[in-house]
TrEMBL record:
<keyword id="KW-0698">rRNA processing</keyword>
<feature type="binding site">
    <location>
        <position position="107"/>
    </location>
    <ligand>
        <name>S-adenosyl-L-methionine</name>
    </ligand>
</feature>
<dbReference type="InterPro" id="IPR023165">
    <property type="entry name" value="rRNA_Ade_diMease-like_C"/>
</dbReference>
<dbReference type="InterPro" id="IPR020596">
    <property type="entry name" value="rRNA_Ade_Mease_Trfase_CS"/>
</dbReference>
<keyword id="KW-0489">Methyltransferase</keyword>
<keyword id="KW-0949">S-adenosyl-L-methionine</keyword>
<comment type="similarity">
    <text>Belongs to the class I-like SAM-binding methyltransferase superfamily. rRNA adenine N(6)-methyltransferase family.</text>
</comment>
<keyword id="KW-0963">Cytoplasm</keyword>
<feature type="domain" description="Ribosomal RNA adenine methylase transferase N-terminal">
    <location>
        <begin position="22"/>
        <end position="191"/>
    </location>
</feature>
<dbReference type="InterPro" id="IPR029063">
    <property type="entry name" value="SAM-dependent_MTases_sf"/>
</dbReference>
<feature type="binding site">
    <location>
        <position position="41"/>
    </location>
    <ligand>
        <name>S-adenosyl-L-methionine</name>
    </ligand>
</feature>
<dbReference type="InterPro" id="IPR001737">
    <property type="entry name" value="KsgA/Erm"/>
</dbReference>
<feature type="binding site">
    <location>
        <position position="17"/>
    </location>
    <ligand>
        <name>S-adenosyl-L-methionine</name>
    </ligand>
</feature>
<dbReference type="GO" id="GO:0005829">
    <property type="term" value="C:cytosol"/>
</dbReference>
<dbReference type="InterPro" id="IPR011530">
    <property type="entry name" value="rRNA_adenine_dimethylase"/>
</dbReference>
<keyword id="KW-0694">RNA-binding</keyword>
<keyword id="KW-0808">Transferase</keyword>
Length: 262
């Protein structure tokens, strides 16, 4: 496609997309009703021009200062945040701009993809996301085979979003090619989340406890933290056997047990 990439900086997890098919799948269509687009880690403006073409307000957050010069003509110098996306001040950004429905797009740097996803799900104004992951991580968020696949990332994301597979990206879709396969997922915020955001921290602690030792029996794991009485009452109320392994729980059971534990 003739895109000329600067030298990739490995410490920033840089692998630039070089596949028109994958780029198109990530950047289209514009989700209905969004009033702004935020791209994390735009690098040398690979996805960015396709997103800017929608003529919505567009902002980018990029750590590597070498790219500012390439991004400025695409999004405007004032719309570039040259910083770590993990430290981005969403509160200040939203107070200033008052957007109600943001589409967040990113070919995420693999080392920060999970903490970033967990932070985005806490920002209700982010209504749509299209995010690239290492395939193993994407499979934890949205397993192809849902049997015995329950885990904390899946439950956390599903509590706020409808999830869908968008496209696989083999190593050859990038320059330089990473050592792993990648997968892009689409997220659409549920109008009524299964867990209100005010409870999301407790839900996350509960999931970390229940899925910290996925292959052990659930009753034993919970008892260590909750004590015998609370564990027995909660499991009975949710009609779940203490002998079950956490990974075999259905999503409905995960929600029921959380509700029963409170
Ligand atoms: C995998 S590359 C993707 C580049 C481009 N968007 C593409 O699709 O080809 C990840 C980009 O994220 C940037 N980056 C890495 N860690 C970051 C962080 N914590 N916050 C913001 N940007 C980061 C890197 O400098 C790099 O440009």
């Amino acid at each position: 496609m003739g895109h000329r990439f600067p030298m990739a900086n490995k410490s920033f997890g840089q692998h630039f997309l070089n596949s028109p098919t994958v780029i198109k799948k990530i950047t289209s269509p514009l989700p209905e009703g969004v009033d702004a687009i935020v791209e994390i880690g735009p690098g040398p403006a690979v996805l960015t021009p396709h997103l800017a073409a929608y003529k919505k307000p567009i902002f980018v957050i990029e750590m590597d200062e070498r790219f500012v010069e390439l991004l400025a003509p695409v999004v405007g110098a004032d719309n570039i945040f040259r910083q770590d996306a993990l430290l981005f001040d969403w509160k200040a950004f939203l107070e200033k701009h008052n957007f109600k429905s943001i589409w967040l797009v990113s070919n995420l740097p693999y080392n920060v993809s999970v903490p970033l996803t967990l932070s985005f799900l806490r920002i209700p104004e982010i209504t749509h996301m299209t995010l690239m992951y290492q395939k193993e991580v994407a499979q934890k968020i949205l397993p192809n085979d849902p049997r015995n696949a329950m885990g904390s990332l899946h439950a956390m994301c599903l509590s706020q979003f409808e999830l869908q597979h968008v496209v696989y990206a083999p190593p050859g879709a990038f320059v330089p090619p990473p050592k792993v396969d990648s997968q892009v997922l689409g997220f659409k915020r549920k109008a009524n989340p299964d867990i209100p955001l005010s409870d999301i921290d407790s839900f996350e602690s509960y999931l970390r406890l229940a899925f910290g030792q996925r292959r052990k029996q659930l009753g034993g794991i919970l008892k260590n933290d909750w004590g015998a009485e609370k564990t027995q009452t909660a499991l009975e109320k949710a009609q779940i056997s203490p002998q079950i392994r956490a990974e075999a729980l259905s999503y409905a059971e995960v929600l029921k047990l959380f509700a029963s534990s409170r």
